[in-house]
Amino acid sequence: MWADTLFIVFISICTALFGEGLTWLLVYRTEKYQKLKAEVERQCKRLEKKKEAHGDSIDRQQKRKIEREEERLKNSNRDLSLVKMKSMFAIGFAFTALLSMFNSIFDGRVVAKLPFLPISWLQGLSHRNLMGDDYTDCSFIFLYILCTMSIRQNIQKLLGFAPSRAANKHSTNLFGPQSQQLGGYK
User: Fold this and answer.
1) Looking at residue 106, what DSSP letter applies?
2) What does the DSSP assignment read for 123-161?
3) pLDDT tens for each residue of 50-88
4) Cβ(29)–Cβ(160) below 8 Å
5) ∠91-93-96 over CA atoms, to 5°?
6) What percent of the residues of the chain are helix, what percent strand, and what percent coil, each to the nearest 5?
């Protein structure tokens, strides 16, 4: 079981490196991406300076200027996401093929023992294709997903591909602006 667990962690590291290499090949090294990333960084810094300079005492005209800057930043972030989209399809295709291959290798094998009982709606994933009723037994797919989620972001930071804190603070996600959700990084 320990050998399987370590092998899955190794697979996760390799697939994360493969994914980042593919992303670098298709996106990060392109001139368009470099220009958009520099533009987002510049807009973030300009917006932060304007907000710090005016503080809480913002008149209507300054507020409109800041809103226009935020709109430009949002559009630049959208353009940056669209540039990354093509590599996401290639990575998704490659990972689906790899995942199905590894899933067939580890089918029905307990690869780890969880130190907790997963939430009921996660038990189908954590106990996928395993015999028995011990829901602390962990399947390949669950361990692989957990490892990939944690390792990929760290590899992005290590290789310098992760967005800066300033850009990340002003980017939007599915639920709206992150700066409003988290209260910023102050």
Assistant:
1) S
2) HHHHTTT--SS-TTEE-HHHHHHHHHHHHHHHHHHHHT-
3) 888 776 667 788 888 888 989 999 999 999 889 888 788
4) no
5) 105
6) 75, 5, 25
